[in-house]
């Protein structure tokens, strides 16, 4: 392959890493963040735990936010509730709560 296409390949291969490039694009989240804060879909964190947030491009070229919850999962205390105990606690109650799914995942507290 190298012999067949010698004119395509560099004669002298550069050593080391390429020079550091500047930022080619910038995404301004300020307006979107202020909108989410005013609509109370998000709130300022009071937690001392930090998670990694990465934006990846989907097939339709829109952005998807991916969050690594491993640090939170490692410090989370797992509670195991027995279904029989939960049913005993609910016995005789008249009022039950439900989740309003209008805003979808924005209402799930992490």
* Rg measurement, Å: 26 Å
Order of helices and strands: HEEHH
**Globular, elongated, flat, extended or rod-shaped: what is the shape?**
elongated
Which strand order spans the largest sheet, edge to edge or round the barrel? Answer: 1-2
Count every helix, treating DSSP H or I runs of 4 or more residues as helices: 3
Structural class comes to alpha+beta
Short description:
This protein is an alpha+beta fold and 110 residues long.
Provide a descriptive summary of the structure in words.
The protein is α+β, with helices and mostly antiparallel strands and 110 residues long. It has one domain. The protein is 21% helix and 11% strand. It has 3 helices and 2 strands, in the order H-E-E-H-H. Strands 1-2 form a two-stranded antiparallel ribbon. A hairpin with a 5-residue loop joins strand 1 and strand 2. The termini are far apart. The model has no long low-confidence stretch (mean pLDDT 78). InterPro entries: DNA/RNA_pol_sf (IPR043502), Rev_trsase/Diguanyl_cyclase (IPR043128). This is Reverse transcriptase domain-containing protein.
